[in-house]
Every structure is written in C-alpha cells, then in structure tokens.
Design goal:
By secondary structure, the protein is α+β, with helices and mostly antiparallel strands. The chain has two domains: 63 residues, Orthogonal Bundle (Arc Repressor Mutant, subunit A); 43 residues, 2-Layer Sandwich (Dna Ligase, domain 1). It is 37% helix and 19% strand. It is built from four helices and five strands. The strands form two sheets. It has a three-stranded mixed sheet with strand order 4-3-5, with no helix packed on it. A two-stranded antiparallel sheet has the order 1-2. The longest helix has 13 residues. The chain is globular and about 50 Å long. Bound molecules: zinc ion (ZN). The site of zinc ion has 6 residues, from loops.
C-alpha cells in the first residue's frame, strides 16, 4: 500500500464523521500538502474496492467510512448527518436469518433514515 493510501485509510479509521472525498482531501492535505483531489478519489476507490472502507451514498454525495466492525448507519433526513449505530448483534442477527430462495447474500448494510437532535 502506498503512503498516501495508508494515510487516507488511517484518517478514515480515526474519524467518525463519514467525510466526502473533498473533506478527506482537505484533512489529509495537512499531512501530505502535495496530494491532489484526483489522487484522493483514486485511493478512496481502491480502498472501497478492496473492502477496507465503505462508501455511502446520501442524496447525490458519496461519504466514506473507515470504521471497522458491523454497524448500522442512521441518516438524518433533515440535516443529512450520518451517525454510527453500534448494534453489531442486530446486524449479525440479520446476517444469520436473512434467507431468500435463489439469492445468496454477500454483504449486508443496514441504513436507517430518521431525524437527529440537531434538526
Ligand atoms: Zn459508519
């Protein structure tokens, strides 16, 4: 893994804000002043394809998440904020119980819309 990719992944592991590519670029520029937005996009795509991070689409915008472990995403329909709902046992329950004839689930993401306290 390149230094740039590693730095982006480390940043996403420690932030809980589910940033956009532009926000990742702004944050990572403090450590890597020469990195371009295009490079950030390319590395975010590679990390997403490799399964190291996940990409969430809210409206027309992609957000990136480096949090490890099963969690549910709550998206506020008023502010667009994304919160991590740490109920791994609920995700594991769905993974265990989900069955549909002729369909094999591979990856389960639970996204719940609602309203946050800031609305
Ligand atoms: Zn998350």
């Amino acid at each position: 893994m390149t230094t740039q990719r590693l730095r982006i992944m480390e940043y996403l592991r420690r932030t809980r804000t589910h940033p956009t590519a532009e926000q990742v670029h702004r944050a990572i520029s403090a450590e890597l002043p020469t990195i371009t937005l295009a490079t950030v996009y390319r590395n975010l795509n590679k990390l997403t394809e490799g399964g190291s991070i996940i990409r969430l689409k809210v409206g027309n915008t992609y957000h990136y998440d480096g949090k490890e472990g099963d969690h549910i995403h709550g998206i506020c329909s008023a502010t667009g904020d994304i919160v991590d709902i740490d109920q791994p046992e609920l995700v594991r329950y769905v993974k265990r119980r989900l069955k549909h004839p002729g369909f094999t689930p591979q990856d389960i993401r639970i996204i719940v819309t609602g309203t946050c306290d800031k609305r």
